[in-house]
Amino acid sequence: MSWICMLCKADHVMTEVVLKPMPGQSPHTNRIRAFLPTSARGSGKYDLTIAAFLSPNILKRFFDRPASLLTVSAVQDHQSTYNRFRNFLSTNSVAGLIQVEAYPTEVLAILPYTREIAMGWKLDNWAPENMLAIYLEHMPPPVPLLHDHVELGYHSRPSTHSRMMYRWYLLAAVLKFTPQLIEKFRPNTTIEIYGSSKWAAALERACSLFVCKSSKATERVVLFDRYDQSQFKKNLFQLKRSDIPTSFWEFGIHSLTVRSIMKPIQLYPLLRGGYVMTDIPNIMADPDILLRISSAVYQLNANPANGDWAFVLQYDVFDRLREQAIGSPSAKKVQLALILLANIMSENKCRVMREWGRQPADTLHQSSSTVRFMEGLVRCFCYKAESFVLVDDISSMSGYLAVIETCQSTELYGNYKMPRELYNSPRSSI
Length: 430
Fold this sequence. Notes:
By secondary structure, the chain is of the alpha/beta class. The protein contains 13 helices and 16 strands. The longest helix has 19 residues, at about 330-345.
């Protein structure tokens, strides 16, 4: 079985080749036959349009994946164009990537002879004068970026603006910026962008239109790139308390496997309260920390301007406290802590939460368990709550996300009450 195919780049036919499955190394023959698009030019041939070029080294990642291998040889009377195309791939160390719209998770790569590929797929009989085609399925579908046009919708006639302004409108449309967010981009707005993807770089260039000196700024917009999770990598305590009104947003895509770009979403909305936690070592060092935290949270909730605050502990806190009762001194602290905790919970001043699927905490790593639990709260509730605070009087917790704030139990109410002042930043990694 073999197929005569025309290798094309755009509408240009570069050469004609014969695809022939290698005996014993092409388990997807029927799938490949369906994958090959029939040529509109007739003659019983197939069009293979190269969508992109990639390094053959990328194909090494698939040595342990099911693949079908086919020889790619020249059609008679097309040897010269075949050699020219093969030399082009070999000189530039690239492979041609073929994708068909009807089969977005399947690809066909065509490449010249390379020793590494021959060894990886154990192709002892691969003749160097022939090229190789590798068929792979279950691949991530391509990310749709721009199609025929982009409808700006809420901006009319962008061509009447300068090229830079048009570029800004176009990028805002592609990233699905909402009218609410776009209205914030004005000459008196300070814009900060954090991220390392191409979307972040393009947005930073486009936002050069809105250059504002800090002394003249009346608003600040902070944009975080979803791709590298930059929304969790910066301490925001001082920005939240700045004299300039500040809003935080995430934009872009989480990974290249995402098929569509999500709209920007506001993060850490101001004056929406937050979550407070502490760990077992802090409770064992001074059980009264439970009273100080619950009292501070109660005072914060007494003023609606502070938002909705919650003192949270993990669901197995009683069991973990009992496990600390080793010897008389610690047993007395555990007994006191259990009494205080029972009283606080009876007054609805503390919530007990469980992360679904999480196993009981390792009692030897109580602090890291609390940190991981708080990081889970951040990822779940960063769209609804402003602050995530670890109360750490004895400096037992470390390695937390930079956006998580820490403070002493005696500072909790003062740091987060309204009206706010610029306090010294809590201990936090930046």
